[in-house]
Every structure is written in structure tokens, then in C-alpha cells.
Design goal:
This protein has five helices and 25 strands. It is elongated, with a radius of gyration of 45 Å. It is 26% helix and 36% strand. It is α+β, with helices and mostly antiparallel strands and 386 residues long. The longest helix is centred in the middle third of the chain and has 32 residues. Helix 3 packs antiparallel against helix 4. Strands 5-14-17-16-15-18 form a six-stranded antiparallel beta barrel. A five-stranded antiparallel β-sheet has the order 1-2-22-21-20.
Length: 386
């Protein structure tokens, strides 16, 4: 019997000790430094924050301030040569290629002979020109004589009109042949029967480089067919592809900064020169920009891909630090001070509409619940909303 009583006393002692331990822990929690933020039951958009909590979490008040925002549009593009810097070499008359020694990438000068074309047609043009020119002196004298005789009523009008027709038609033929020979670089001023040539030079119209060659020596090159393509890299531009929704905000004169994967670490600056007026099938608008420092163009190669940022027109707007924005259920809010008690603040949760952003600030559109006089929690707000 005594043994049973001893066991009962031992069990009661253990239960009593455990109860005292739980009670002490509960009391310790009540008197500890833990921070609990409470919402007012009457309004779920209201939050009570004590001064102790404010100080412990190193919070900070702030207001809407006017700042200048410069939004950037990120786009991709390519280094290109303007149309005037591209030149296809196509002959006016067909002929056999000779003297072709070009290689792709070779530098050429304006007026340099690229190769020659040979054809009996060139000989025939020179012959026809010399024959027409030789008749002009005789026909001119005959026309003047008939004109004088007709004025003095000695010769008939028929003879006068015939002489005039023969002279003017031969003159027109001679001038036409002269223009055609000039197109194939034959100088008619020095042309005689002894200097007739069977081959004519094909001369470069621009200075630049040979991009591609489409013929070989000995091949027959038909008229208007492409023999080679030349490029002039003295001026290059940046061609950007901008989505139509962003293109409406792009204007001439805006700055563009861009980098290229082939040249890491180097940034170039350009200026918008032309904004396209047509939209492609992919809903892009072409934007052309020119480098501000044209001396850097020698570092660029046509066809290089690039990543660019177009800096849109700056805009002054009301703003807050990014830390002032808290998101709840996908909706952005700020916490605005509504009332102050002795040792606490009552905060109101206000939904906001965000605009442009940068690394530190975000644009805020004022509403009837938020203006430049509102006192806003700009630091530590994220700890007060779930």
C-alpha cells in the first residue's frame, strides 16, 4: 500500500512540474521583445504600427517627390550600309570578260578599272559613230546652201526640207552614238579609224571593297547581268527593329546606346535619324540611327548583330522609392499614415498605379487617396503585409 502511494506522489510531482514550466514559458513570451502587427477589425485596410515596432524594424517615412524618368526601349538590330554605299556592277552591253583579277574583300578606288569586256558590238558602235560624224560637215554645208537658195527664191522648198532632214537626222544619230560610247568609257574626242578598240573597261563607280564576284575570266557576261557587288563602308548606320507599340514613342533625335556580342565591354552611342512609316508582317517598325562619333565606324562590320536601348523623351513625374511598394495578391500598394496616437500609428493600405521605373525609383500616378502631402512608409513596408 505504501508503495502505491509513493508512485502516485511521484506522478503528481511530474505533472505539476510540467505545468509550472509551461506557465513560465507563456509568461516569458508575454513579456518578451517579439513584435506583432495587428489589423483593425473594423477595416481590413487599416494597420496599427507601434512606435516600438517602427524603431525596431528601422522603418522610415517619406513623401511623393518629383523626379525625371527616362524610359528605355530594348531592341535588337544590325549594322547596315545605306543604299548609296552599295553598288552592283552590271554592263550596258554584253561581252566576254577579260583582265578580271578581283578577290572578295579587296579594296578598290573610284575610277579604277575592274576588268574588261570584249565584243564585236563595241567595234560596230565606234564604226557607226565615225561614219555619222564624217557626213556631218558635208550635210551641214548642204543644208546651209539650200537654206540660202530657198530664202532667195532660187531653190525649191522640197530641196531645202530634204537637206534639213538629212542633216538633223545624222546629227541626232551621231550624238546618240556618242552617248552610247561614253557609257562604255570610249572617248570619242580621240576616236579615229586607227584607234577603234574591241574591248572596253568596266570602271568602279565608288571607292570601297569588293563584297562578291559573280563571273570569271572568259565567261560571256550578258547585258544587265551582275558581275560583282561593291560596298562603301565610309558611312554605316544602325538599323533597329522596334515593335509597333513602342515605335509610337520613338522620335528623331533620341539617343541610342548599343553593344555587340562580338565586341564585349564596348558601348556605342547613336542618334535616331529616321523612323520608318511602314510596319512589317512581324509587326516591326524599322528605325535608322547614326553613330555620334563617326570615327568609330571603322570598328563596325556590315551584318553585325547588336542589342540597343532607345532612350525615350524624359518625363517629370511623382515618384517613390521602390521599397515603398508592397504587393498583395498581385496588386501594388503603399502604406499611408492616417492618424497618430500616443505611441502608435494607424496606416491605410492604398492601391497605386505604377509607371516608369529605374533602379531606385518608381513612377506613381497620384489618386484622390494619395497626393504630394501624404506621409508614406517608404522603408520596411514589406514586413507589414502578407
Amino acid at each position: 500500500m505504501e508503495a502505491i502511494k509513493s508512485k502516485i506522489h511521484a506522478i503528481l510531482s511530474i505533472v505539476l512540474g510540467f505545468a509550472l514550466l509551461v506557465g513560465c514559458n507563456s509568461k516569458s513570451d508575454e513579456n518578451g521583445d517579439s513584435i506583432e502587427v495587428k489589423s483593425l477589425e473594423t477595416d481590413s485596410d487599416q494597420i496599427v504600427l507601434t512606435q516600438a515596432q517602427f524603431d525596431a524594424m528601422d522603418m522610415k517615412w517619406g513623401e511623393l517627390v518629383l523626379k525625371t524618368f527616362s524610359q528605355e526601349v530594348k531592341v535588337q538590330g544590325e549594322i547596315k550600309i545605306p543604299v548609296e554605299g552599295l553598288q552592283d556592277i552590271t554592263p550596258f552591253y554584253g561581252g566576254y570578260v577579260s583582265g578580271l583579277k578581283l578577290i572578295e574583300g579587296q579594296q578598290i578606288r573610284k575610277g579604277e578599272i575592274l576588268f574588261y569586256l570584249e565584243s564585236p558590238e563595241f567595234v560596230k558602235l565606234q564604226q557607226d559613230y565615225l561614219e555619222a560624224s564624217s557626213q556631218l560637215n558635208y550635210l551641214k554645208e548642204e543644208f546651209d546652201r539650200q537654206k540660202t537658195l530657198y530664202a532667195e527664191k532660187i531653190a525649191s522648198q522640197k530641196g531645202y526640207l530634204k537637206a534639213e532632214s538629212e542633216y538633223k537626222s545624222t546629227l541626232a544619230r551621231s550624238e546618240s552614238l556618242k552617248k552610247q560610247l561614253g557609257m562604255i568609257h570610249v572617248n570619242t574626242d580621240n576616236l579615229t579609224a586607227e584607234t577603234i578598240q574591241a574591248k572596253v573597261p568596266i570602271i568602279s563607280p565608288i571607292s570601297g571593297f569588293v563584297e562578291a564576284i559573280f563571273t570569271v575570266p572568259g565567261a560571256f557576261l550578258p547585258s544587265a547581268s551582275k558581275a560583282a557587288t561593291l560596298i562603301n563602308t565610309e558611312h554605316m548606320h544602325i538599323e533597329l527593329s522596334v515593335f509597333e507599340k513602342d515605335a509610337v514613342n520613338v522620335k528623331e533625335g533620341q539617343m541610342v546606346s548599343f553593344t555587340m556580342p562580338d565586341m564585349p565591354g564596348q558601348e556605342f552611342v547613336a542618334e535616331v535619324h529616321v523612323v520608318g512609316k511602314a510596319i512589317s508582317e512581324q509587326r516591326f517598325v524599322p528605325i535608322h540611327a547614326h553613330l555620334l562619333d563617326e570615327s568609330l565606324e571603322n570598328k563596325l562590320v556590315p551584318g553585325m548583330f547588336l542589342e540597343a536601348k532607345i532612350k525615350l523623351e524624359p518625363k517629370e513625374s511623382w515618384s517613390l522609392p521602390s521599397s515603398a511598394i508592397v504587393t498583395s495578391d498581385g496588386i501594388p500598394y503603399v502604406l499611408v499614415q492616417s492618424t497618430i496616437n500616443n505611441d502608435s500609428f494607424q496606416l491605410r493600405k492604398v492601391e497605386v498605379q505604377l509607371g516608369r521605373q529605374n533602379d531606385e525609383l518608381v513612377e506613381i500616378y497620384p489618386t484622390q487617396n494619395l497626393d504630394e502631402n501624404s506621409k508614406i512608409l517608404v522603408k520596411g513596408a514589406f514586413t507589414l503585409l502578407p
